[in-house]
Amino acid sequence: MATLLHELVLEQASRRPEAAAIVHRQATFDYAGLAQQVQAAACGLLDVGLKRSERVAVYLPKQFETVVALFAIASAGAVFVPVNPLLKPEQVIHILRDCNVSILITACGRADRLNLNPAACPDLRALVLVDEPIDPSARQSPQRLRWQALLAAGTGPKPARVIDLDMAAILYTSGSTGKPKGVVLSHRNMLAGAYSVAHYLANRPDDRLLAILPFSFDYGLSQLTTAFVAGARAVLMDYLLPRDVVTAVARGRITGLAAVPPMWVQLAQLEWPTEAVESLRYFTNSGGAMPRTTLDALRRRLPKTAPYLMYGLTEAFRSTYLPPEEIDHRPDSIGKAIPNAEILVVRPDGSPCSPGEPGELVHRGSLVAQGYWNDPEKTAERFRPLPGQNPALPLVEWAVWSGDTVKADDDGFLYFIGRKDDMIKTSGYRVSPTEIEEVLYDSGQIVEAAAVGVPHPTLGQAVVGVVKPLLASYAEADLINHCKLHLPNFMTPLHIVLRQTDLPRNANGKIDRKALAGELRDLFSEGDA
């Protein structure tokens, strides 16, 4: 069993060298070819002076070079920082500066848009460009190198020895509030997650996993690591429309598909061709609760496909999953702890909650990250001592306090209530937006929905629903009446905001409630009291 992240590729190359590892567009790369490129790129990075634990950013769309770069950086004993290709230059530069990136692997056009200079990124000493030749006579700072030259460097210095507790990656959160934070992950963190997920999904060598989520998102990166644990193939895709995803599943005979709720809402409205229905063995959801109506629609369209409802957070990757056989009994549950993790539900003082009592989800185990890069204050807020630890143990065990409110039933199955920072405080009540959104979706009128709290002079916050309607015949009064039938008065939206376009997303594809709340903060004036 691999103990370092890049060893996943090397192990599969020794066992099944000719098996497909990566598919990108019309090209297929086997494990032997992937391993050879990873080792060559690692040698090239060491040859240009990369040192142990230095950070190397990869700012590319999903393509073969992206995968090679990530695992080569790990093989060289350094730390990879995948940057979402959808980010704007100022966001990218913040990440490069924040974690002192020394080498950036990107494309020429992207590098030019960043307009990098020593003042902006003082630690950045080299750019590796995957797509264009470099003019050797041009003197530029930072230095520009060709990807192909990196691969042809030959034998470089030996990498420094690393162990599984050493840093492997820094993943930046979406940054919906303030600047994004860099979550530091060790080799052990990433491998523990990969083995655990591949185990409960029963991944196998003949699986084909469609990777549509960004690799900067832990859920997206997991499509690579779980595929490599099983010796399966990962099919890379930067989709344009939901229809493209369905087409790719059918064309590629995809067996595993992971997405976030806004994408599933759209996919549930499409007809799935027979080839997709026959090939898709499972689908997974994380990054938020899937609306019940969406789950029901997907199960009707994909009757042979096992749904896995999951919950995770970047600081501990994945926490819970609901086995498919439990879907009919408790479709609203996020399940129980994944293998090799323990989940606690606790009160503010750390004492355990009773069944049915809301509390904070706390995650312990080998998936707990190493904190936020260079941010001890925020690290201390989220990474805290494990509650209830035996006082006879002199060393403190650290756990992740998620900031999410959940409750457990009598059988120990967990139910997500809401994030502390998303909860709406209205008329003295704390209200979960996901509960309201579920009712909005259940109306049958809505393609997308978000519930947000907006400042109100007498209520504290008013509940506002933001919706994209399914049909032109949308009736706001009917939607409000539907909510009144299924929600108490204090949870019923005071106002519905209609949008004909998709609701805003953050960089990981989730609906951005905070952005919507910011847009609507002046919706109610003193005259509404």
Protein described:
The chain has 16 helices and 26 strands. The chain is α/β, with parallel strands linked by helices. Among the domains are: 179 residues, Rossmann fold, CATH 3.40.50; 83 residues, Roll (Luciferase, domain 3); 107 residues, GMP Synthetase, Chain A, domain 3. The strands form six sheets. Strands 2-1-11-10-12-13-14-15-16 form a nine-stranded mixed beta sheet, sandwiched between helices. The relative contact order is 0.09.
Summarize this entry quickly.
By secondary structure, the chain is of the alpha/beta class.
Order of the strands making up the biggest sheet: 2-1-11-10-12-13-14-15-16
Total of DSSP H or I helical runs spanning 4+ residues: 16
Output the CATH class name of the domain at 7-185: Alpha Beta
Segments where pLDDT lies below 50 for 5+ residues? none
Number of strands: 26
| Residue share in helix | 25-40%
Mean pLDDT: 92
If classified by CATH, what would the architecture of the domain at 7-185 be? 3-Layer(aba) Sandwich
Radius of gyration, rounded?
24 Å
CATH topology of the domain at 7-185: Rossmann fold
Main sheet: strands, sense, barrel: 9 strands, mixed
| General form | globular
Distance between the termini: 64 Å
Percent strand equals: 25-35%
Structural class: alpha/beta
Describe the secondary-structure layout.
Elements: H1 7-15, E1 20-24, E2 27-30, H2 31-47, E3 55-59, H3 64-75, E4 79-82, H4 89-98, E5 101-106, H5 108-114, E6 126-129, E7 143-146, H6 147-151, E8 167-172, E9 182-186, H7 187-200, E10 208-211, H8 218-230, E11 233-236, H9 242-252, E12 256-259, H10 261-267, H11 274-279, E13 282-285, H12 292-301, E14 306-311, E15 320-322, E16 336-337, E17 341-346, E18 359-365, H13 376-382, E19 383-385, E20 398-408, E21 414-419, E22 424-426, E23 429-431, H14 433-442, E24 446-456, E25 460-469, H15 476-486, E26 495-498, H16 513-519
Parallel strand pairs: 1-11, 3-4, 3-5, 5-6, 6-7, 10-11, 10-12, 12-13, 13-14, 25-26
Antiparallel strand pairs: 1-2, 8-9, 14-15, 15-16, 17-18, 18-20, 19-20, 20-21, 22-23, 24-25
